[in-house]
Amino acid sequence: MGEVLAGYLTAQAGAFLRALPQAVGEAGSRPGALPASAAAADDLLRSVRRVGGALHTFGAAFDPAWAQESRTELRWLLNLLAQEPAYQRRSTRLLAALDSLADTDPAGPGMLAGHAGAPKARALLDRQLTLARTRVHTVLLQELRSARLHALADRMTLLSGDVPLLDGEASAPAEALLPRAGAALAALSAGAERLPLQRAAVPYGGGGLHRLGTAADVRGPVADAETAVAADDAPWLRARILLKRARYALEVCGAPVPELDGLDRVLGRHQEAADAAVTAATAARTPRITPATAYVLGVVHADQRLEVEAARYAFGQQWPGLAPGLGGWEGPPAPRKA
Amino acid sequence: MGEVLAGYLTAQAGAFLRALPQAVGEAGSRPGALPASAAAADDLLRSVRRVGGALHTFGAAFDPAWAQESRTELRWLLNLLAQEPAYQRRSTRLLAALDSLADTDPAGPGMLAGHAGAPKARALLDRQLTLARTRVHTVLLQELRSARLHALADRMTLLSGDVPLLDGEASAPAEALLPRAGAALAALSAGAERLPLQRAAVPYGGGGLHRLGTAADVRGPVADAETAVAADDAPWLRARILLKRARYALEVCGAPVPELDGLDRVLGRHQEAADAAVTAATAARTPRITPATAYVLGVVHADQRLEVEAARYAFGQQWPGLAPGLGGWEGPPAPRKA
Q1: Does residue B338 surpass a pLDDT of 60?
Q2: Contacts of residue A109 in chain B, CB cutoff 8 Å?
Q3: SS (H, E, C) chain B
Q4: A322 CA: distance to closest CA in chain B (Å)
Q5: 3-state class of A188 per DSSP?
Q6: How confident is the model over B312-328, as a mean pLDDT?
Q7: Would the CB atoms of B113 and A228 count as touching at under 8 Å?
């Protein structure tokens, strides 16, 4: 088991160290040029997610304090790195949705074709998202020069050479990984069971706009829509985290399930649409906008919640066929890499 | 054939004459009380539609001038009677949608829960729809005392006693009705073929908000969204008319197809949601509304277009299973009433 797990972590830590200088820029390069490469930043995010996931699922194999600290630092970097590309994608998504809604092409106009509020709403969203991106970029630049990042890089350098497995774990057979990966799959199944899949299975059930779910502990009238929507989205966002962990656990075992990649993309679309909807709703509260702008933002907001509903429907179509195979999953007879 | 057709028209004209005094109010009753009975108005509409439909489909059996005049007068009364209940339904639909979107019940809040614009948008929609209803009601009151209505009532009295069939039609066998009913079904099939059913068959295809269809003769950029949306809806509204005619033709033949009633309801929902969406968009153009009100109206507008899309999806699910049976329809061996 130790061999497989160490091999995986060593490879991922190596990928981390290769991507870091390009993503962060060489020492001494002008800070304004950061991140130097979007592709390298993607690679960095990729390995950060995988190392963090493996340390979560197979945490019992490591010194608990070391594993916990490592995960905390990786999560810090993940949050730092993920924000700017997330704003970039959100901007692309919202402006594309708006352009499609306001399209005047006779081959396929949108329901806001030629609406006076559309260019104003577009400019407002563009301005607010550019501002948000600039803000997280500035924070990123500061943090990338921090001692904290250097310490994390050192930690990954160590990991790329010598994985600090507990005594006994290194010599355990590879099959010992399977129950832990199985636990990650069981957590995913349990998370999926908390989703309102029956409602999502009916297209146009209206769940995206009407009759949202709320956290069980909410009593009395819902204070505001944002709280209600966030409570409605929470189990889906949670399922996405569990799904990523399950994917990485299966990767460690050398037994990836490609359908999970597809479901991960569906839940990624769910989250991006949910975040975009919040951005549209927030933009609509900007003081002194015209009613036409606000009206267009209302349509865009509903359109993104519709995308949320569509992603839930897609998940509800794919998951039930996949779940039975995963529920009783005990891994392949022997992991391929073992 | 004459016997069957005459029997149907006599019965419908009788229903018309029974419903008329209640719907219109007795002579001498206070005009403000009109229409005296909503149920009677429904019955009246029901027979107006059926007589008009039968005169259209089986028009060749009658004196052409008489049939044409009768259809014109019936269509006039139909438009007159249908408007007030349509506004009533639209009001119910829009206010219910808004209440559901703004619901703060923790058991199922909406995406506009607690939004400041929701009560304002509700009051605006309510006011505008009440005004529109009052306006059509006033017109209805005037027209119900008109010589034109008395003439139509006289025409229906004649029809209830003696259906003016052409020579030879009265003695034709009942089977002669079938090719004419078949032609109504063929017109429905042709109308359904013009619908973008393939797009509608994919739930969340986004056709309701994005990539609307337009009339083939539109060139250059679409002038405004209302034109684009109207062009997108047109083939569906046309299909609804053809479906009603087909239903009534089958009724005349004593061979109703219950599935067509269901499809008629789906297309009725399509039309009501499309009309409600226009009302929301129009309300959003009211001068001096607040941005919050406009924003909520944008959400309501998108929500109704989503209902339009849902109705198209429902039609696309039901129609293909039904169409083959209707396409080659030549009627039952002998109509039941024959």
Answers
A1: no
A2: 211-212, 214, 222, 225, 228
A3: CHHHHHHHHHHHHHHHHHHHHHHHCCCCCCHHHCCCCHHHHHHHHHHHHHHHHHHHHCHHHECHHHHHHHHHHHHHHHHHHHHHHHHHHHHHHHHHHHHHHCCCCCCCCCCCCCCCHHHHHHHHHHHHHHHHHHHHHHHHHHHHCCHHHHHHHHHHHHHHHCCCECCCCCCCCHHHHHHHHHHHHHHHHHHHHCCCHHHHCCCCCCCCCCCCCCCCCCCCCCCCHHHHHHHHHHHHHHHHHHHHHHHHHHHHCCCCCHHHHHHHHHHHHHHHHHHHHHHHHHHHCCCCCCHHHHHHHHHHHHHHHHHHHHHHHHHHHHHHHHHHHHHCCCCCCCCCCC
A4: 21
A5: helix
A6: 85
A7: yes
C-alpha dihedral, B47 to B50 to B52 to B54, nearest 10°: -140
Q: Which two tokens stand for residue A68?
A: 């916990």
- Comparing A205 with B88, the larger pLDDT belongs to B88
Complex ipTM value = 0.90
Cβ distance of B298 and A303 shorter than 8 Å: no
**Could you tell me the two tokens for A338?**
């073992």
A36 confidence band (pLDDT: 50, 70, 90): low
Q: Do B221 and A298 touch (CB under 8 A)?
A: no
**How far, in Å, CA of A261 to CA of A250, rounded?**
11
How far A328 CA lies from chain B's nearest CA (Å)? 32
Inter-chain touch A298–B293, beta carbons under 8 Å: no
Yes or no, beta carbons of A222 and B290 under 8 Å apart: no
Average pLDDT over residues A113-122: 96
Name the least confident of A11-15, A262-266, A324-328, B308-312: A324-328
Give me the total of CB pairs closer than 8 Å, taking one residue from chain A and one from chain B: 202
Asked whether the predicted pLDDT for residue A56 surpasses 90, the reply is yes
